[in-house]
Amino acid sequence: MQHILATTDFSSNAYNALFYATQLLRNKACTFYILNTYEEHTPLTSKRIPTGKGDALLDQLSDESEEGLKITLHKIVLDNGNTNHMFKTISTKGDLVEAISKTVERNNVDLVVMGNKGTTAAKAIFMGSSAVETINTMKLCPLLMVPGEIDFEPVKKIAFVTDYKRSFNLKVISPLLFMASLFNASIRIFRVLESESLDETQKSNRDVLKQYLDPVDYKVEWMPNFSNKTKTINNFLKDSGIDMLTMINYEKGFLKKLVQGSLIKKVSFNLDIPFLIIPSED
């Protein structure tokens, strides 16, 4: 049984991420936890009690959260129609990122799913503050970021971006293997070329990774770093027809620099594919 946590603010992007997850895991028995959080400044409806009425306001926010979850639950059950899937709703007051961490621990969650704000014209992901904070703090399980307005297609090609500078173990690689197993996907190990050859540590890490990936179809690829890593990765994803991007979120790695830097305020990744972020053990 897989335990999946999907966050919602009742937007179309959040629902799309939830629905995508149900289709991705269509052949797995799963329990989906649908989480909504609220605080006194949560903009749920326009009919707002004056903020001076603290308890009354929180009661209203709680009612709105519960009602929104009921509507979401009804819709996903109808749209999904999978008897192998169970759905539970969680409404809680407080910070979203803290609520995610608590829910993951209490329910042994295997995967957190979040929707991203996206625009069809730009085919771009703009990560909101909650998404960035979740990426920075999530240590217990992988996080799947699903771009807005994406239609589900079976995942047949997964890109795993690495520089081989850190060691791998089965716990870190297991989420990648699991995703590949869902639709018998091939894995493209991709490295942005920063030097002409690998050092001994990188070679050793590469060989260990190959051993872990031996049960699946995989291919090792690289591209020269013509301009910057972001652009090089984007070009590879588009040229190779990749269905899902995967990275390990190391403490001082490329992904951490990306989400913490000013680049995130721009079109950081021109992604129209899901992004699986695996926590490291460093």
TrEMBL record:
Put simply, this protein is called Nucleotide-binding universal stress protein, UspA family
Q: Which PANTHER family match?
A: STRESS RESPONSE PROTEIN NHAX, UNIVERSAL STRESS PROTEIN UP12
* Family note: Belongs to the universal stress protein A family.
Q: Which domain of life is it from?
A: Bacteria
**Where in the numbering of this chain does the UspA domain appear?**
1-147
The source organism is Maribacter arcticus
